[in-house]
Amino acid sequence: MMRSFFARFLKGLSDMADKANDGHAWLVSVLIPAKDEAGNIGHLVDEIHHALAGHLTHEVVLVDDGSSDDTGAVFLQHCQQWGMPARLIRHAHSAGQSTALWTAARHATGRFLVTIDGDCQNDPADIPALVAQGLTLSETHQHFCIAGFRTDRRDTQWKKIQSRIANAVRRRILDDGVPDTGCGLKLVPRATWLCLPYFDHMHRFVPALVKRLGGVIAIVPVRHRHRTAGVSKYTAWNRLWVGIVDMWGVRWLIRRSKLPLIDRMEVRH
What we know:
Blueprint: H1 2-18, E1 26-34, H2 38-52, E2 58-65, H3 71-82, E3 86-91, H4 97-107, E4 110-115, H5 127-137, E5 144-150, H6 157-174, E6 186-189, H7 190-193, H8 206-212, E7 216-222, H9 236-255
Parallel strand pairs: 1-2, 1-4, 2-3, 5-7
Antiparallel strand pairs: 4-6, 5-6
Helix pairs in contact: 1-5, 2-3, 6-9
């Protein structure tokens, strides 16, 4: 019964998507920032193919952020296997997750950008639900962010404690309405992303920065999985304390922003 429901959902989503490319080459560009994820990236590409092929036009953009392993080669091999449109961009030196996503967004060509972590802890099967919400919001809003919410975290207890503290402090300071900003699964229109200010660690604050533009935020529950290969690139220092410092900079940026209400515009030729 669930399989039948999911098939009907994908069929309806595919029909909506066929009408929604809005002049873009693809409806969806899946952006993957990765460093030393050769043990995960092939499986992730396979899952993206199974989740999207035949339902949503898409490309996959991987930014290899200074890997010392075969992350890029494995990525291209699996994309070729499925005939999946792909872009591989290599940073000469590691520049961090935010910079990797910024690079990917500038080279993507899809209408919607979907970010996903390269460690296979996010499930690509959740992407269609984000796109469905995005298609609905796009009918009434120019700027928006669909943020994934990991309702059943598959992390260590220490990492969960860090996340709870950071999320509580962030909501208090920024009031972005997001319960889980650390979730890698997000959807943002490319036109919106290109309006966001770039700075290191900005990926942690995408919902708040979209809200700064007058955009709306929607939350979609998503799955979360254990990491099965590779190691995390984050520590308690760069995950929690550096993030708290950055929050005050984002708060300053938001408070200094003004959104004008245009009363009238006249054009003469």
